[in-house]
Design brief:
555 residues; alpha/beta; FAD/NAD(P)-binding domain; 4 domains; five-stranded parallel β-sheet; 17 helices; 31% helix; FAD; flavoprotein; oxidation; FAD-bd_OxRdtase
C-alpha cells in the first residue's frame, strides 16, 4: 500500500507514524511546501517573546529523523500542484529546483491545515511592519524585526488565542500595545460575562483594548505608516500583528470532489475518511463534531489534529480507532490570568434549546494559609438531565487542573451530582478539602433541585424593570456599609431566622453574600420559614459588581 500525505505538521506526521507502527510493508510519503515539519505552532509567540530560547526547540524532528525512526519519506519544500484521483496520481513541484514530477498513491491524506484570514483591507498589500504568525519562518521574521528595529508601539488585530498571546509577549518586551477586536469582547467563543475579566487584565497590564473596532483603511507604501479604524480613529504603530482567525486549506481537496461540511471544513466519517474511498482528511482542514450535541464544529487545535492523525493512520491500516468528537477545550495564559473553557457556553447551550442552570463559583484553588487564590468557575448544566454541559474558568493558578477534570467528566457524560462523589486528590499545597470542582457539583445539584440560582444579569434586568422583590444582603453589617447592591436591605445570616418574620413570604426574595456560600445558607433558612420563591445570587456581591461595572462601561 502506498500512502501519500499532503502536509507534515501535527496531524500529517501522526498519520505517518501510526500507519507505520501498524504496517511495515506500507510505503509512506509526506509532501509539504514549508521548510519545517512537526513543529510546535502554539509555541511560536513564546519564541518571539524570548520565553522559548530558540526556535529550534520548536522543531525537534526533521525529515532525516522520520526516515531513520519510522522509514517515512518526508519531502519539505515540495508543493502538490494537482491531483488526478481517477488514476490516483499527484503532480508535485520541488520548490528548490522547480522540478515537477508525478507520484502515485493507494491512500491519500489531506493534512493541509489552515491559513490565517487576512482582513480585506490588507489583501494584495505588503508592508514591512505587518505580520501574521503562520509558521516557524514567520515567527523568525517577527523576532528578527523586533531585534533589529526595536519597535516601541504595536497594534494587534484580533483578540483570540494568538492575538492575546502576542499582545502579552510584546508587552513583556516593553512595547506599548493596543488590541483591536471586531466583536464586543475578547475571546468571543466565551460568554461575555467571563470575557470581561480579560478586559480587566488588559487594563491592569496597561494594554489598550478597542472593542468593536478594526482597521478599515491603510496608508503607506513599503511600511504601514497609519491605519484608520472603522470608528475613524487614526493609529500609528511601529509593528502590526494580524491575528484574525483561520480558514481551512480546502482547495486541493475540493478540486477532486471532496465534500465540505457546514462549517466549511472537510467532512469525514469516524475513521477520518472523506466521501471518497481511500481519501482522508485530518487536522485543521477537517471538521469535528461536538461530544455533547453531536453536531459539526470547527475548532482547530493541536491536540485534535494529533488525535485525528493517529485515528486515520490506524484506521487505514486495519485498526479499530474511531474519532469520538471534541468538547472544544482550550486554555490560554494571559499575564497573571489563566483562561480555560470546555463544552458549551451558556449562549451555545441556550441556542441548542437546553433549559440551563448557571452557576458562578468563586473559590480558591487551595487554602488561604497556603496562598490560595480565587478562581471563577462558570458552569452550565441541563435542568432536565442534570448533565454538565460546559465550564469556563479564570484564575491565577490551578485552572489547568480543574478544566481537565471538567473535560474528562463531560466526555463521560457525568451529571452535576457526580462531581461531588469524585475522589479528587487533596493536600494543602494543591487543593482545599472540598475542591472547587466538588463544590461546583454540590452547588449545581442544589440549584437543579430545591435551591434555584439567579445570575447578576437576571437581577439587573429585574431592577431595570422595577420588579417588586425583597433583596437581602446577608453579609456583615460592616461589608454592607462599605457598599451593597442598590435596593438591598441588610439582614445577616445569623439574624435571619428571627428577622424574617417581618418580611413578606409571598414576595419574590433574593439573597446574596460575598460569593454565594452564605447566600445558600440564607436561602435554606427562608425556605424552611415558608418563603415561596427564594433565589440565591450566584457569585454573590463580587459577581454582581463585575457585571454592573460592565453595564456602566457600555453606557
Amino acid at each position: 500500500m502506498k500512502i501519500i500525505i499532503i502536509g507534515s505538521v501535527a496531524s500529517g506526521t501522526s498519520v505517518a507514524t501510526k500507519a507505520r507502527r501498524n504496517s511495515e510493508s506500507a510505503t509512506i510519503t509526506l509532501y509539504d511546501k514549508d521548510t519545517d515539519i512537526s513543529y510546535a505552532v502554539c509555541g511560536i509567540p513564546y519564541a518571539i517573546g524570548g520565553e522559548v530560547g530558540d526556535f529550534d526547540e520548536l522543531t525537534p524532528r526533521d525529515a532525516q529523523w522520520f526516515k531513520a525512526r519510522h522509514n517515512v519519506d518526508v519531502h519539505t519544500s515540495h508543493e502538490v500542484l494537482s491531483i488526478d484521483h481517477s488514476v490516483k496520481t499527484v503532480l508535485v513541484k520541488n520548490l528548490l529546483t522547480d522540478e515537477i514530477f508525478e507520484d502515485n498513491y493507494d491512500v491519500l491524506v489531506f493534512a493541509t491545515g489552515a491559513s490565517y484570514q487576512t482582513p480585506e483591507v490588507f489583501q494584495n498589500q505588503t508592508f514591512d511592519n505587518v505580520f501574521q504568525v503562520r509558521n516557524i519562518h514567520s515567527g523568525k521574521v517577527i523576532k528578527s524585526f523586533i531585534d533589529r528595529q526595536q519597535p516601541k508601539t504595536a497594534v494587534v488585530v484580533g483578540a483570540g488565542y494568538i492575538g492575546l498571546e502576542m499582545a502579552e509577549q510584546l508587552k513583556k518586551q516593553g512595547l506599548d500595545v493596543t488590541v483591536l477586536q471586531r466583536s464586543q469582547h475578547p475571546m468571543p467563543h466565551l460568554d461575555w460575562d467571563m470575557a470581561i475579566r480579560i478586559e480587566d487584565e488588559m487594563q491592569k497590564q496597561g494594554i489598550q483594548f478597542r472593542a468593536e473596532e478594526t482597521i478599515a483603511e491603510v496608508r503607506g507604501t513599503t511600511r504601514l505608516e497609519t491605519a484608520v479604524t472603522t470608528k475613524g480613529n487614526v493609529l500609528q504603530a511601529d509593528l502590526y500583528i494580524l491575528a484574525t482567525g483561520v480558514r481551512p486549506n480546502i482547495a486541493l481537496a475540493t478540486s477532486i470532489g471532496v465534500t465540505l461540511g457546514e462549517t466549511g471544513a472537510i467532512v469525514t466519517d469516524k475513521t477520518m475518511q472523506t466521501n471518497l474511498e481511500g481519501v482522508y482528511a485530518v487536522g485543521d482542514v477537517a471538521e469535528s463534531f461536538h461530544v455533547i450535541t453531536g453536531k459539526p464544529i470547527y475548532r482547530p487545535m493541536a491536540t485534535t489534529a494529533n488525535k485525528m492523525g493517529r485515528i486515520a493512520g490506524d484506521a487505514m491500516t486495519g485498526g479499530a480507532l474511531r474519532f469520538q468528537g471534541i468538547l472544544g477545550t482550550g486554555i490560554l495564559r494571559f499575564f497573571d490570568l489563566t483562561i480555560a473553557q470546555t463544552g458549551l457556553t451558556e449562549k451555545e447551550a441556550l441556542d441548542e434549546g437546553y433549559d440551563v442552570a448557571v452557576l458562578f463559583n468563586i473559590k480558591p484553588d487551595k487554602p488561604a494559609y497556603m496562598a490560595g487564590q480565587d478562581m471563577v468557575i462558570k458552569a452550565v448544566a441541563d435542568k432536565v438531565s442534570h448533565r454538565i454541559l460546559g465550564a469556563q474558568i479564570m484564575g491565577t493558578q490551578g485552572v489547568d487542573k480543574r478544566i481537565d477534570v471538567f473535560a474528562a467528566s463531560m466526555t463521560l457524560g457525568v451529571k452535576a451530582e457526580d462531581l461531588f462523589h469524585m475522589d479528587l486528590a487533596y493536600a494543602p499545597p494543591f487543593s482545599t478539602t472540598k475542591d472547587v470542582v466538588a463544590y461546583t457539583g454540590m452547588a449545581l445539584t442544589n440549584a437543579l433541585n430545591a435551591a434555584p440560582l439567579m445570575t447578576a444579569q437576571e437581577l439587573l434586568a429585574l431592577q431595570d424593570n422595577q420588579t417588586e422583590m425583597t433583596l437581602i444582603d446577608a453579609r456583615t453589617a460592616e461589608s454592607y456599609a462599605k457598599g451593597h447592591i442598590p435596593g438591598a436591605i441588610h439582614i445577616s445570616v445569623s439574624a435571619l431566622r428571627e428577622e424574617s418574620a417581618s418580611l413578606d413570604k409571598d414576595k419574590l426574595t433574593i439573597v446574596y453574600c460575598y460569593k454565594g456560600v452564605a447566600g445558600n445558607a440564607a436561602q435554606n433558612i427562608l425556605q424552611h420559614e415558608g418563603f415561596k420563591t427564594v433565589y440565591n445570587l450566584t457569585g454573590g456581591h463580587e459577581q454582581y459588581q463585575e457585571i454592573a461595572k460592565q453595564a456602566k462601561r457600555e453606557h
